[in-house]
């Protein structure tokens, strides 16, 4: 097996990182921090695995205290917690469903109570289901995908503003599918397009408060969502259709979040970064 392809594999939703072959690179051995977020307080949804785990590790290595939420992947979550704690920062974890507004409000309040404030909110948790045609997407699946992928972003942002001052950062995870679509991920792609509009609108709304709102739109990334979403033969070919001819690793995406959360991103708001393996979007 080369580093550009993966063995056929499949999991049930939402997917478990420890069952993936090969394991994703979340930066435990490859990310070196330099104190760019020292003293900052961050809250990340979907932080147990994939991009969320890589962001949690990177933020911790940059000096931030980290809280993260996860749905039910207990083993992955505990592994993330242990890695983050080894960096000497404070770390909280919350198990629950971000599709539930009360859960969103609750974890924001608990994070702020422990850390004193929230400097960085990363809306990242997502749900993705493969469907051959639009007729195969049930009303229940459609609503569930929207509740997880975009409603939760609204709830998390609204609750966090009470604890976020000037210089605060909100970073939303969208996707390359928001810009080029995907015929087998119609509901997922639709939510990711909504996240782009949400990011731009919230950035305009919060500019006077000095809070910056941006997004990251990854291309194909090797996370638990992939074997939990696609047929085995699609997993085997995953990422081969981009310019770089391979899927990205979560740690490669985490650098974009660190940039937007740090002083380097101080003159950016309402923008989308595109770590996507070379897909050209937007003209």
UniProtKB/TrEMBL annotation:
Region described as Disordered: spans on this chain: 1-33
Any one Gene Ontology molecular-function term assigned to this protein's record: oxidoreductase activity, acting on CH-OH group of donors
Oxidoreductase among keywords: yes
Bias-annotated ranges (Low complexity): 7-19
Gene3D superfamilies, alphabetized: NAD(P)-binding Rossmann-like Domain (3.40.50.720)
Keywords on record: Oxidoreductase
InterPro entries assigned: NAD(P)-bd_dom_sf (IPR036291), Sc_DH/Rdtase_CS (IPR020904), SDR_fam (IPR002347)
Lineage: superkingdom: Bacteria
PANTHER family the UniProt entry points to: NADPH-DEPENDENT ALDEHYDE REDUCTASE 1, CHLOROPLASTIC, NADPH-DEPENDENT ALDEHYDE REDUCTASE-LIKE PROTEIN, CHLOROPLASTIC-RELATED
Family according to the record: Belongs to the short-chain dehydrogenases/reductases (SDR) family.
NCBIfam families tied to this protein: PRK06701.1 (NF005214)
Record protein name field: Oxidoreductase, SDR family
Lineage: Bacteria, Pseudomonadati, Thermodesulfobacteriota, Desulfuromonadia, Geobacterales
């Amino acid at each position: 097996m080369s580093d550009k392809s993966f063995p056929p594999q499949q999991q049930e939703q939402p997917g478990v990182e420890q069952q993936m072959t090969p394991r994703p690179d979340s930066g435990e051995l490859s990310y070196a921090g330099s104190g760019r977020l020292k003293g900052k307080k961050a809250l990340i949804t979907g932080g147990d695995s994939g991009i969320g785990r890589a962001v949690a590790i990177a933020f911790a290595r940059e000096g931030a205290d980290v809280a993260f939420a996860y749905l039910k992947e207990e083993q992955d979550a505990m592994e993330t917690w242990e890695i983050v704690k080894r960096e000497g920062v404070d770390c909280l974890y919350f198990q629950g469903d971000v599709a539930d507004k009360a859960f969103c409000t609750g974890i924001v309040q608990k994070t702020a109570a422990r850390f004193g404030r929230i400097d960085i909110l990363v809306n990242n948790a997502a749900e993705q289901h493969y469907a051959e045609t639009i007729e195969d997407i049930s009303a229940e699946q459609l609503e569930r995908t929207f509740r997880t992928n975009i409603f939760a972003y609204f709830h998390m942002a609204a609750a966090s503003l009470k604890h976020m001052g000037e210089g605060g950062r909100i970073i939303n995870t969208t996707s390359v599918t928001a810009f080029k679509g995907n015929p087998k991920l119609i509901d997922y792609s639709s939510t990711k397009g909504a996240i782009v509009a949400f990011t731009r609108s919230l950035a305009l709304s919060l500019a006077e408060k000095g809070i910056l709102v941006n997004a990251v739109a990854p291309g194909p990334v090797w996370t638990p969502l992939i074997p939990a979403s696609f047929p085995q033969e699609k997993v085997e070919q995953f990422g081969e259709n981009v310019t770089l001819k391979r899927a990205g690793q979560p740690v490669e995406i985490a650098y974009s979040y660190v940039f937007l959360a740090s002083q380097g991103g101080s003159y950016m708001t309402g923008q989308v970064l595109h770590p996507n393996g070379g897909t050209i979007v937007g003209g």
